[in-house]
Each structure stands twice: as C-alpha cells, then as structure tokens.
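Forum: Protein Structure Q&A
Topic: Joint prediction for protein chains with partners

I've read a bunch of threads here and the consensus seems to be that you should model interacting components together rather than docking separate models afterwards. I'd like to see that in practice. Below is the full input, 320 residues plus whatever partners are listed. Could one of the regulars post the assembled result?
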Amino acid sequence: METHFTLLQRTLGSYLGLAVGDALGATVEFMTAREIAAIHKIHRNIIGGGWLRLKPGQVTDDTELCLALGKALLRDGLNDTNVIADAYVKWMHGCPVDIGNTCRRGIRRYMLQRTLQADPTPDSAGNGAAMRNLPTVIATLNNESAYERVSLAQAHITHNHPLSDAATLTLGRMTRRLLRGEGISAAHAEAMILVECVPHFRFDPWPGMTSGYIVDTVQTVFDAFFNTDNFEECLIRVVNRGGDTDTTGAIAGQLAGALYGVSSIPERWLRKLDSNVQDTIRGQCDRLLALQNLDQEPSNVFAHSPVIPHPLSTAKTAAI
Ligand SMILES: [Mg+2]
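Posted by a regular:
Agreed with the consensus. Here's the joint model:
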C-alpha cells in the first residue's frame, strides 16, 4: 500500500520533472542531433538560450499550460470545461514566450465562438494536448471515467484528432500507474496497448523522427524512457535526439519523475529551474491530489458535451 508521502513524492517528481525537461530541452529545440553534438557534445545542463533566448531555468508553453490547467482544475475545471478554456485564454493574453499554431487557433476559436471543441482536422495531430495533461492525471488518480472525460475535454479545446486522443490518454494512464507505484512494467503494458490498437506508435526499433507530430513525440519519449534506468539519463537521451526537445523533454520528465520520484531529479537542474514555477508546482500537487476524494458529479456542461467513444477506452480493437 502506497503511503501518501510516497505518492506525493512521485507526484512532485512527475510535475517538477516535466518542468525540468521543458527547461532543459528548450535550449536545443528544432536542432538536429548532429547540430546539438557539434555545439554541446552532449547537452546536459539547464543553460537557457535556444531560439527563444530563454533565461536559464525558464520554461515554455508545455509547463505554463500545465500550470494553467492545474489552476483551472482547482477551481471548477473538473466540472466545467469553460473554466479550463478561460484559463488557456488568460495564458495566451499573458504573451507567452511560445505558443503552437494549433493551440493558438483553438484558443482563438473559443474566444470568438465560445465552442469547446476544435473541428477535427488532419493537421491537429500535434503534441500540444498530450504535453499539458498531467494535472488531469493527478486530479483524477482513482477515477478512470473522470480522467477520460476531463482529458478529452481539455484536449479538444485545441486538438481534436484520434492520434492525439490516443496518446494523451495513454501517457496519462502510464503516469497514473507510475504514481501509484506499479512500476515500469505497468507503464510498458499501457504503451503496448497503444501500439497494439494504433500501430503508428510502434517505437521499437525507434523510427528516428523527433517532430511535434504526436506519433514522433511519443516514439521518441518511449525510446528514452524504456531504454534508460534513471531520470537523468532518460532526459539527456531524449533531448539530445533534437527536434521538439522541450516537449519530448517535458513528457519524458513527467514519466521518469513519476517512476523515480522527486529525489531522482539532479540537484543542479532543480537549482536552475525557475523558482516561481517550482513554488506553483509544489502548491498545486497536494491540492490536485486532494480533488480525487471529492467524488464530483459531472455537471450539465459535460452531460451535453459529446465525448467521442475512444478505441482505447471501450473498443480496444477499433481501428484509427
Ligand atoms: Mg514548448
């Protein structure tokens, strides 16, 4: 039986791990592995810079959207998707250092039309919904139906694509099982369900693509996570692949932090990580974990919002 202490340490590890991965990876975002090697040999320190000219320890949209979602869930976001969408609007109005095209388009659509779901489009299979879903995992740790409902609701505000949905749900389920202390084999089982249902995601052998396309992102993260045995190596492996490194770093950090715990995050990385971000994360973890005990009923907002049946939730053999 897990103690609360252990659960909290893993939750902090996951959330801080995500932020650390974002801050580490952002330095080399959009570079190729060869370019990274030429400049850094191995990129292993949080030094800022990159195309966004970040301060050392500064995070990007991956972490900021998690913080916005976490804050919304702590209000009434579990029951009202408008609260989540409003939080994304507020974030965008704060002139974020970076914002993906699909996120911008989705948030603008909500502002103009007040609709909570993006139209399904072929180009919405980016990683922007999966990268920000950790607060939902934490807030619904023991409630699968609430987890699915809120994950897809927050995702569809900007990203409405079956590959994004499948990856978002799987990454969250992996994280949940790791937070519960079920170990890497449980996470691997979830990853294999994804691969079985949606063969696009096959990651062994690693296909070598690192873009923001959700399939490339998931394959690159899985390769790093399942082929290393500690937090630091996992993150160094993933960001030195190049490509969308802030997001692969963030998602790898989420998984590795949930598995190895907060004490596994190198001190030199935590020292650098923006202190306001750290404080906000530490402030959210306990309170998000506490939400799972409230046993909230879905409000009318959810009752009337269509939730697309998902192959990974009901019919595992359905094709995408
Ligand atoms: Mg980013």
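The two ends are 37 Å apart (CA to CA).
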